[in-house]
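Possible regression after last week's pipeline update?

I re-ran a chain I had predicted before the update to compare outputs. Posting the input and the new output here so someone can diff against the archived version. Not blocking, just want to make sure nothing changed silently.
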Amino acid sequence: MNKILKASFILIFFSFSLLLFQFSCQSVADAEPALSVDEAVKPLNQIFYFKVGSNGAEQLWVANYDGSNQRAFLVLPENLNFISETVSVAPDGKTIFMTLNEVINSNTENTSVYAVNADGTGLKKIIAGTDGSGEVGLAAVW
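New output (post-update):
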């Protein structure tokens, strides 16, 4: 039950942050000159969202901006779970970064930054948290 409440809170917060991001980007886009084709990074034109599967596994899903083409992007192993709504895409669009919590045993958890390929393969820990004595969080990717 605790995981469901936690996942629901994360989904609500993530939805709110996307809405806030959309509004802030529009005003910035109006104020800045357009980039040339060579300067611009090809956008993925997709949204990422969190979901808990029927088996309780936490998942990252992807869909088009209009909500079409929804599909599971990444199903986390049983010992990993999302602790933050932060998912960042590298400027080249090839790598996605996120903060995950790794449950080592009933008394020890590590918060670390993970990377996954843009096709959902190759999940790997890139910045490890320390055993129960601190947290690592993703701030930005550029």
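Follow-up from reviewer: compared with the archived run. Helices lie at 2-31. Marking as no regression found.
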